[in-house]
Design goal:
With 357 residues, the protein is of the alpha/beta class. It has 13 helices and 7 strands. The protein has one domain. Helix 7 crosses helix 9. The relative contact order is 0.14. Bound molecules: S-adenosylmethionine.
Length: 357
């Protein structure tokens, strides 16, 4: 597993825990920028923080490791389950009795996943396991154990899916380069992932809370976070950046597709995308303005990138309407796209825009 090196974290200190956080292949994850984000957070005074667009929860986990009170939010259910498992959860893990119950395939269950995703994703055996384990997760009485089991399952599904996105389906032999992640069954992955995620559960002596809300529905008046970390999706230069398009399978799995309508005319059996104003040129600027206004009592940190719209100058000027001091930190960064044979790299500047006062 790829490890983070955080030189500023003393070995054995509570912040050192971030080194155990598993890398989740998630679009826009700040995993690789964590040391830089940590350095910036460390220079600021605050006790509580709201990670408004938590995604893989790696920034929430950094904040938890820094012993802050963390509010972690994402409007995707699967992402908020990850936060529930590793941020809000203080001590519950999946023990050996839970694990044998979860792995029991001799149970009566629905076969929705086998019916719906046959020849779309995974092997028949993997789909069979997914139906059984979904049923078994619902039998765990603790919501934290359920969230932890789902988190282990999401990472298992991502590892087993070539390129880690659910935009490609059918015969995926051309992606099979013999990698261990593609050879293991989802069940084998799940057993490993349960152990990995059990290991990241800890109590930082704070009441951390997870939300599954559109950011504009969060009650800042009630929770009053000292600092708000904002990492919204970017309006992309081309293509689109829809999270549902890439992760619809995990979002469906998080609720066994209850309440979600499958778009039957799509090859990969997608669910409907969720509107977010940050993804469109027409709506992004107003959304930033309203978001900065909503959290104007808190210190703001916005993660941004030079290949996104609106540009840095526009964003800092919007933030200046709400904050008396605005500072920009920047870091050159290389993104890798594509698979092994067609890797392309794009150089961008990553920014942290910090608003105070
Ligand atoms: C760039 S990612 C965040 C990545 C995260 N910081 C990490 O390191 O993994 C943006 C996230 O915002 C979420 N999102 C988009 N629009 C949202 C909205 N209006 N309210 C809440 N979450 C939203 C997406 O589901 C996605 O997980």
């Amino acid at each position: 597993m790829e490890q983070l090196i955080l030189p500023s974290f003393e070995k054995g200190s509570s912040s050192d825990r971030i080194n155990n956080y598993p890398l989740l292949r998630y679009m826009g994850s700040k995993y690789k920028l964590i040391p830089w984000i940590h350095e910036t957070l460390n220079s600021l005074e605050f006790n509580s923080a709201f990670d408004a667009f938590a995604g893989s929860s790696v920034v929430s986990y950094l904040l938890k490791s820094m012993n802050k009170r963390v509010y972690s939010n994402d409007f995707l259910k699967f992402s908020s389950l990850i936060s529930k498992a590793v941020i809000e959860n203080k001590s519950e893990i999946i023990d050996s009795t839970d694990l044998s119950m979860l792995l029991n395939e001799n149970v009566k269950s629905d076969n929705f996943i086998q019916k719906t995703f046959n020849q779309v994703f995974y092997s028949k055996d993997d789909l069979f396991f997914l139906d059984k384990v979904s049923h078994n997760i619902s039998r765990l009485s603790s919501p934290y154990k359920r969230a932890l089991a789902y988190t282990a399952l999401f990472r298992s599904c991502l590892k087993k899916q070539p390129r880690g996105v659910f935009t490609i389906s059918g015969n995926l032999d051309k992606y099979n380069d013999g990698r261990r992640d593609l050879r293991l069954t989802i069940k084998q992955h799940f057993i490993e992932q349960v152990a990995i995620y059990n290991n990241v559960v800890f109590d930082n002596d704070q009441e951390n809370i997870t939300f599954n809300l559109d950011i504009f529905d969060f009650s800042e008046k009630m929770y009053k976070p000292d600092l708000v970390y904002l990492d919204p999706p970017y309006v992309p230069p081309s293509d689109d950046n829809c999270y549902i398009k890439r992760y619809h399978f995990l979002e469906g799995l998080s609720k066994y597709w209850n309440g979600e309508e499958i778009m039957e005319n799509t090859k990969v059996k997608k669910i409907k995308k969720k509107f977010t104003p940050f993804s469109y040129r027409k709506t992004a600027i107003k959304a930033f303005d309203e978001m900065f206004d909503k959290f104007n009592d808190s210190t703001l940190i916005l993660s941004y990138s030079s290949n996104a719209y609106p540009d840095l100058e526009t964003l800092t000027s919007i933030m200046r309407n709400h904050k008396s001091s605005v500072e920009v930190k920047s870091k050159p960064y290389k993104y890798h796209f594509g698979n092994h044979s067609t890797v392309s790299r794009s150089k961008v500047n990553e920014y942290l825009i910090i608003g105070q006062g």
